[in-house]
Amino acid sequence: MGVRTWLGSWPVYRQLTGSDPLGLGAAAKSARSKELTARTETADSVARSICPYCAVGCGQRVYVKDGQVTQIEGDPDSPISRGRLCPKGAASKNLVTSELRQQKVRYRRPYGTEWEDLDLATAMDMIADRVIAARDATWEDVDSDGRPLHRTLGFASLGGATLDNEENYLIKKLFTALGALQIENQARI
Amino acid sequence: MAECHPVGFQWVMEAKDRGATVIHVDPRFTRTSALADRYVPIRAGTDIAFLGGIVNYILANELDFREYVLAYTNAATIISEDFRDAEDIDGLFSGFKPDRHAYDSTTWQYEGQPTLTAGGADTNNQRATAGPLLHESHGPPLAAGDHRRDETLRDPRCVYQILKRHFARYTPEVVEATCGVSREAFQAVCEAWTRNSGRERTTALVYSVGWTQHSVGVQYIRTGAIIQALLGNMGRPGGGILALRGHASIQGSTDVPTLFNLLPGYLPMPHHALHPTFDAWVGSMSAPDQKGFWASARAYATSLLKAYWGDAATADNDYCYDYLPRMTGDHGTYETALSMIDGTVKGYFLLGQNPAVGSAHGRAQRLGMANLDWLVVRDLFMIESATFWKDGPEVATGEVVPERCATEVFFLPAASHVEKEGTFTQTQRLLQWREKAVEPPGDARSELWFFYHLGRIIRRKLAGSTQARDRAILDLTWDYPESGAESDPSAEAVLKELNGYEVATGKPLSTYVQARDDGSTAVGCWIYTGVYADGVNQAARRKPGSEQSWVALEWGWSWPLNRRILYNRASADPQGRPWSERKAYIRWDDKQGKWIGPDVPDFEPTKHPEYRPPEGATGPAGLAGDDAFIMQADGKAWLYVPSGLIDGPLPTHYEPVESPIRNPLYGQQANPARRAYQRPDNQLNPSPPEAHSDVFPYVLAVGRLTEHHTAGGMSRNLRYLAELQPAMFVEVSPELAAERGLEHLGWAHLVTLRSAIEARVVVTERITPLRVGGRVLHQIWVPYHWGGQGLTRGDSANDLFGIVLDPNVLIQENKVGTCDIRPGRRPTGPALRDYIAEYHRRAGVTPERRSPIVTTDPHRED
Amino acid sequence: MDRMGFFTDTSVCIGCKACEVACKEWNEVPSHGLNLLGMSFDNTGALTANSWRHVAFVEQPRPAPDFLGMPGSHPPGQNGSADGRSDFRWLMMSDVCKHCTHAACLDVCPTGALFRTEFETVVVQEDICNGCGNCIPACPYGVIDKRENDGRAWKCTLCYDRIGAGMTPACAQACPTESIQYGRLDELRERAERRVERLHADGVPEARLYGHDPGDGVGGDGAFFLLLDEPEVYGLPPDPVVTTRDLPRMWRQAGLAALTMAAAVAAAFIWRSPS
């Protein structure tokens, strides 16, 4: 920092040399204040999204800079929400960027007392094996009168009301093809 | 609504600013009450008595919108002479089978009608399979032919007269004695509602889905529907019944169901005995010569099977119908949880849901999970349902010991809403597409990724199988385009499959009318057909609301066919003219020869209002030009429901299953057709006429706070939300605080036969004692957001509830119950179970005890 | 540049606290901690360095004449008819820095950290503030506050960065019911007058404005309110006065005593007369 710059950053100097002798306004503006811009202005991209909490379906704009979400706020274009959000919707960035979010697979072996690490691909393979085994162990081909059942009551699922339609569709399609019936979600609760 | 859906409430405020009167009926004074013109406190669980009183007010004073009622409802239809009302049988309708606590609905039918519901006249099967849930998109079947009507509404067997007799005893005095609502307040509500309905004005009824969480939840909404139909508030702007749902796509997860008894588009999951063949299955959905759009059910069913099994599905093999699993009864989430305790369920997936906190009887949920072989939890945060084996309440009591708990747990982090693309269906059936903003962090993946790849791995592992059972999974169409470093399947490709396409060309369909029953179309969810019309993602449309009409047809896409107000044909009179210019919406334009208006007409676009079906016409052609309710088999709004409901054709007041008082109206205390699980680990608090109800003298109501979300996973972990409501608390009135020695901000604990939970005491005059049936009744309110994980932790309100369900849809009663409340913290460790055991002893409850279901007074039966 | 401000209309506030959260998300304000305060639904407590919007909740039972509503005044619930408390009122107000016309905080700031922006709002500049704390007792509303573990003073900036970009401040943007309105102060004052007239006509005689009057002790607030009761009910001072009103006289005396003080520096403060 040169002397001139240094001096120029001193509010008193700015005040005495500028057009703001009372020192309350522009002369008092710091370097940071001068360069301040809304971070939404400098975002790399903006995604049009929908709030993940309740079913009002408020529009959200998701601002991204360097691959990170920097702001989520209401979408003024939405005829439903007109840019407004409730405290939960307004906390969406916290939801997405929270340091408390789990980012790694965790595994608890039978009779284990602590979580362990597990590779995602290994977890997927283990889960597939368990689905197949549970299905084999509990398969019901026909009822006592010989009518088809073609099913398993050996495994179940709960969840879907917070998920996308496309996701619910694949869940139901896959489980139905596996003969699994006990597929439920919050709509039952 | 301000409490749980603040942004939706802006429209209430807007209406209020334009002069609307806002009335809020709630057991406790909430943020909604604060902004309402009138707040009416009510005893939790008495809504049918309250709304039934309004029906009585309307009918006794003939304040119904008669022209609308005659044209668009079944008020004039004549009912079977064998029907007997609950008024005649002390709270039971005709056809009750005491041995099964279920009805034979034969006597409820329209005169001369056979029973045609999917489960036949015996409602037992329908109850087990939550059959009435099918009717979210359409009414039950009716045989062809006209039904005898009396347009004068004088025939004693017409629906109007039956309704009038049924609700005649629901007087202001009975409302006051049952609900604790003063006659003055009740009268004011009656007057406001009726005065603001009719030709020139409409009234909206808004509920939040806590209304469904009752043993009579469906009939609550039915009572509201009767009022709205009688007053002509359905299918019209500013009217309707609006359900406010708590999850972003809870509507979508019913339309595209992750529910045991449904297939996409409200097609029934087959039942082993009722639907042994494809023909029996599709035959159960609609009568062969039925009127209305549901007559095309065979095309929707065939097209779904084509979407599932593609080339393998042919006419010769009934489109792989035998690949579908068969229901044999109740396979709902509560039956499943109890089956876990009993050891018959091996594995469990939890997908963004937290039953340890969010489901009734948390202890049963956790003990069930502790008895699994394996559990997969997919969530954003470490939730209670993932950690029950480590630090759950049962670890504290010693009922679960980690070293002896065999459940293998996989926690897989999930992608958030900004880390994947796809559609949510919001509460008014509007699909809105979300763009992907960023990649999910670390191992986090979408459910789409998880299930697509799980399916791929399973199919690979079973590839060489020769077992018949594996054909369904190996023949499945499972070939979605992948992209990106993590091989994400294309959500848009799945949306296109939901929309449906021509098999030969892959061309997307633009309306469900194009669905065929010959295998030439594949449709994943027929009610969503049109969302991908012209190969364009219509759910992604974002024309600003300020640049289009108030109906905003170019923002997102709603089912069916982008219609925003269902049954909007009813916004015009039978001749097709608006009921009034003030409430104009859809009207017949003679010059253009079609229906016009700001919305997509919910009617055949060029069907003349004076069209009358020729003799023997079926399907849509069977509906007349003034049959506004086109998904109903008779084109009418049903004031009286001849089939499709388990617990009666009319709503009738039953007490909550746990209630401190005897039913003031009938000997029948609670819903006689409720789904009960009578087992030692699910004992319900005694209620009259059973002895010892005084052990649990207070009414317990449960709800939500603006600052938190459902079971709390998405709010208790967020610092900016946790700090706004930082502790589990219980709201009590100053009077109850004095009665029980409770101190503001001190501790108290609540006790039921299931468990005891503790909470900080908030003494507030927002809770008021009610005078009910000559005694003072105290209500207690707790939020249910808390659990043992997160930034703010506390006991879970749902641990207090047992499991008893509405028979129509198998949803639990956990918005009302009874409890005791005591100052101070609850016992901890094994002492907690001893404490609960002591309450069992005091309440005279042994493991063998069964709650009485039928409680009618034999002297009152005819 | 027009003077910009907030008009907070408490008659439509639903107490959802979206303003508190939206403010914190945008301005990255730290959590204020987990404290159940028992002040109705207010668990924030006050405007602090870590809460730049604060929603106050006031429960006002207005019992029917025969119902005293006091615990112990009669057998519990004896008069508890269903409508006994239907006159109950629950007031909610989202409080915020008032951005005073005569801002004492700004007057007493020795470093120039506090300044008046081109929108005539009052902002603390975090790169200048040295944490001296002079501003804190100076505020007649008790708004500005020092942050622990940081030492600097923090308060609402009226989203200086956002409004500079032509955007709405985060709290007003989120507010579901337009209880918080942002705009040109002169327009907001007109709108507020009309709103009060409307409420009076609609039978809400208790509606009144607070902080709108340029003739008040702080020269009028850049953020003013429509209240439904006396200001004290909401925890607001009934008649706030800029604490530096007498400052010029005080400084003249101080200046005489401190002859070694650099004249230019002293002048910077002496000349700050709110007159």
UniProtKB/TrEMBL annotation, chain C:
Gene3D superfamilies listed in its UniProt record? 3.30.70.20
Listed A to Z, the keywords are:
4Fe-4S, Iron, Iron-sulfur, Membrane, Metal-binding, Repeat, Transmembrane, Transmembrane helix
Q: Which InterPro entries match?
A: 4Fe4S_Fe-S-bd, 4Fe4S_Fe_S_CS, FDH_Electron_Transfer_Unit, Formate_DH_Fe-S_su
Q: Which amino acids does the record list as binding [4Fe-4S] cluster 1? A: C13, C16, C19, C175
Which cellular components does GO assign to this protein?
A: cell envelope
The compartments listed are: Cell envelope
Record domain 4Fe-4S ferredoxin-type: where: 4-34, 88-119, 120-149
Binding note for cofactor? Binds 4 [4Fe-4S] clusters per subunit.
> Which GO molecular-function terms appear in the entry?
4 iron, 4 sulfur cluster binding; metal ion binding
Indicate which residues the UniProt annotation says bind [4Fe-4S] cluster 3: C97, C100, C105, C139
Q: What is its main location?
A: other
| The name this protein goes by in its record | 4Fe-4S ferredoxin
Please name the source species: Phytohabitans flavus
